[in-house]
Amino acid sequence: MRLPASAYMAEGRVLVQINLVSYNVHGCVGWDGKADPDRVARVLEEVGGDIVALQEVPALERGGEALIQRVTARTGLTAIVGEELLGHFCHYGNTLFTRFKPVRKSTHHLGVARREPRGAIDVELECGPVTLNVIATHLGLSPSERRQQIKRILPLVMQKPCPVVLLGDINEWFTWGRPLRWLHAYFGRPPAPRSFPSLAPTFRLDRVWVSRPSVITHVRAHASPLARAASDHLPVSARAELRWGDYQACSSSSARA
């Protein structure tokens, strides 16, 4: 069931509800070995989402542009492409889709020497009465690589005055890993469903976090037959409830002043 973004009064304060999705699309290659951007777009149409982070999006000339066109056509979301794809640093990268107005965008290099290039999209969005910072990323495969990357991400998160959403494939297989413990120390421990591998989910690699006072609900891995076939990961979705009374200094009107 799709839960559109909404805002309503609760206990005298505006409650903004935003649906967040993180999905590693595996280059749009499913378990059948076929690259099918439209199949991935149909999965996202099933899931619904107001802010969607995709990882392992193919380079633009290798199918990424087709994927972006199909997702925007099926969902009505606007695409924000990571610098990895624009700069052709690697074959795959990050793309963020949103139905909200972006007011600022930057990208951060998270690459580690002798490892695959990695990056993060960092966007500030006007979400009704609330300004939200969103960071979308895909961390590396080695523990030492992830430790370095989290040490770069956390200072970015901590210096932002408004709530921060962190979305992505964290690639942390073990709950006792230091990168995951560092992230939990700042963001807390919202539910994290098993999302990999999609045919028999065992590991909780794909994560949705929101900083500051917030409530994350309806967290789930979308395990439809189409989603199980489209990628080796399942998309993970969550609903964030932001109480405007807790963020008046971060309201859109304040951000524009």
Describe the structure.
With 257 residues, this protein is α+β, with helices and mostly antiparallel strands. The protein has one domain (11-256): Endonuclease/exonuclease/phosphatase (Deoxyribonuclease I, Chain A, 4-Layer Sandwich), CATH 3.60.10.10. The protein is built from seven helices and twelve strands. Strands 1, 2, 3, 4, 5, 11 and 12 form a seven-stranded mixed beta sheet that branches. It has a five-stranded mixed beta sheet with strand order 6-7-8-9-10, with no helix packed on it. Helix 1 runs parallel beside helix 2 (64-75) and helix 4 runs parallel beside helix 5 (178-187). The longest helix is centred in the middle third of the chain and has 16 residues, at 143-158. It is globular. The chain starts with 5 loop residues before the first strand and ends with a helix.
CATH class: Alpha Beta
Shape: globular
Quaternary status of these chains?
A: single chain
Number of domains: 1
The main β sheet shows up as: 7 strands, mixed
CATH topology: Deoxyribonuclease I, Chain A
Helix vs. strand class: alpha+beta
Mean pLDDT: 86
The CATH homologous superfamily name equals Endonuclease/exonuclease/phosphatase
State the separation between the terminal residues, measured CA to CA.
37 Å
Taking all Cα atoms into account, the compactness measure Rg is: 17 Å
Strand content: 25-35%
Helix content: 25-40%
Unreliable parts: 253-257
Helix-strand topology string: EEHEHEHEEEEHEHEEHEH
How many β-strands, per DSSP? 12
Number of helix segments? 7
CATH-level-2 architecture? 4-Layer Sandwich
